[in-house]
Design goal:
The protein is an alpha/beta fold. Helices cover 41% and strands 13% of the residues. The protein has an 8-stranded mixed beta sheet with strand order 4-11-10-9-8-5-6-7, with helices on both faces. The radius of gyration is 29 Å and the shape is globular. The relative contact order is 0.11.
């Protein structure tokens, strides 16, 4: 029979030789408390009395006395030839009893009260609840992970493990793996019109960390921030966490209404925008509006956070250059992510900081988590260098264009009179405007009960919306599932 490993940590045991309480009783109390709290699980093997006596620098008789008492009371079981184990027969109502009592104590509750910032963070909504157990139509803004180039990725990862670089298991640069930063800078310059050197690129764990880092570096409490309304909940949440004063600015056919923003909050310190493909309405900011925003930010000394979350996917015409590429005053912090291009699980994004902010953002990243995981950065750099990234983008752009067309066709067939699909030439989702005065939150819940996930537009809005709508993703679903999803959604809306 294989030996059961001893897993008890002696950090759970604290003995005080100067105490009036006998050592055997202190040892008994420590082990009993660890069992009741769940720190020592049922069936866990306990070190022998000889081992424990040696490690605790006490006599074996002291340990034996504590063990005998614990065995007599049913906390431990002695198995001949095998050792001593935490009992499997402890009543459930005894386990964790001390923790429950402490957590309900008014005195302890007062000590555990959150800070003002902690309360703000805890109360911040970051997404509308969806079914997290499995992916269902029409969960928005998710790529097709089934089409992730897993074999290529595995081959690159295997090569890295067979021929590891010396720095693979060591700390890396806070700003990220240098070859990856070089690949990102080259890609952004060619594909997005971003003007940057590799030194300006900081690798982060997705757009959310980039937004949070920007708030930490550039905002003080009560500073004013413009946010798009409706807009990305993650940006709003990060600004709330930074205790900024959030000013919702409406969106029209040309993007964020700069003139309205100036009237509402001329003292804005930061403007959060998604100019290439506004989330969630899908509007592309016009050149006129981009220049207007840049001119105002330069005059006001304000910063612009440009979230370019899914700009790779434009299906009609040429992709538009980033706002950052028009900026002559270094007012734009540009961020993007590989979550929409490759996989959300990868957790790699990037931030392009103006030259004079690079040191501050790098220090901020180092304080947050030292640096993003090195191994994944190395593989992604190899993925770029071998040309796989460009090929993957082309393939997925064609696939998503087909799925967008399939979604529009299914909507016309199944949802006519219930939803009006707003056209969009880019992205991974579309807006469906509700007819018959339906409430979008009610509609989303009805859809969820019928096996369809979607996001109500009102959940992304600060001001009351004039028209109710649903955010509907199509990129993760093939034609069959899109058609089935449209049928289920139609049934749900008809029964609202």
């Amino acid at each position: 029979m294989a030996k059961v490993p001893t897993q008890i940590s002696l950090t759970a045991i604290a003995l005080d030789a100067s105490s009036a309480v006998p050592l055997y009783r202190q040892l008994y109390d420590s082990i009993r408390a660890a069992i009741l709290s769940g720190q020592l699980a049922s069936g866990l093997k306990i070190p022998s009395s000889r081992e424990m006596a040696r490690d605790l620098s006490v006599s074996r008789n002291t340990v034996a006395g504590a063990f005998d008492q614990l065995i007599a009371e049913g906390y431990l079981e002695a198995q001949t030839g095998a050792g001593t184990f935490v009992s499997k027969k402890i009543p459930d109502e005894l386990l964790y009893a001390s923790n429950k009592t402490n957590s309900q104590s008014p005195k302890n509750a007062a000590k555990r009260e959150l800070s003002k910032r902690g309360k703000t963070i805890a109360a911040t909504s970051v997404s509308f609840p969806l079914d997290k157990q499995r992916l269902r139509p029409f969960a928005p803004c998710l790529p097709s992970v089934e089409d992730f180039p897993l074999q290529i990725w595995a081959k690159l990862a295997g090569h890295r493990l067979r021929y590891p670089a010396r720095n693979l298991l060591n700390y890396g640069e806070a700003a990220g793996y240098r070859p990856l930063r070089e690949e990102i800078a080259a890609y952004l310059g060619a594909a997005r019109g971003v003007r940057c050197a590799p030194e300006q690129v900081i690798v982060v764990t997705g757009t959310q960390q980039a937004v949070d880092l920007t708030a930490r570096i550039l905002l003080d409490a009560d500073d004013t921030v413009w946010v798009e309304d409706p807009g990305y909940l993650g940006s709003r949440g990060a600004m709330n966490a930074a205790q900024a004063r959030i000013v919702p600015v409406p969106i029209d056919a040309e993007g964020i209404e700069v003139e309205t923003g100036v009237k509402l909050a001329p003292d804005a310190r930061l403007i959060c925008v998604t100019p290439s493909h506004q989330y969630p309405l899908g509007v592309t900011m016009s050149l006129k509006r981009r220049l207007e925003l840049l001119r105002w930010a330069s005059r006001a000394g304000a910063w612009i956070l440009e979230d370019d979350y899914d700009s790779e996917y434009r299906y009609e015409g040429r992709p538009l250059a980033a706002l950052q590429g028009l900026d002559n005053d270094n007012r734009v912090i540009y961020t993007g992510t590989f979550s929409k291009v490759l996989s959300p699980a990868l957790r790699i994004g990037y931030l392009v900081a103006p030259p004079d902010l690079v040191d501050a953002f790098t220090a901020g990243k180092a304080l947050l988590d030292r640096h993003s995981p090195i191994f994944e950065q190395m593989i992604l750099a190899d993925f770029f260098a071998a040309g796989h990234f460009a090929r993957h983008i082309r393939r997925m752009r064609n696939l998503y264009a087909e799925r967008r067309d399939a979604f529009i066709s299914a909507a016309k067939s199944e949802l006519n009179g219930l939803l009006e699909i707003a056209p969009s030439a880019a992205g991974l989702h579309l807006i469906g405007w509700l007819n018959n005065n339906l409430n979008d939150t009610t509609a989303a819940r009805a859809a969820a009960e019928n096996g369809v996930d979607c996001e109500p537009l009102s959940a992304l809005s600060i001001r009351k919306t004039n028209r109710q709508g649903l955010v509907l993703g199509y990129a993760s679903f093939d034609e069959k599932h899109i058609k089935e999803g449209a049928e289920r959604l139609a049934t749900a809306l008809q029964n609202c």
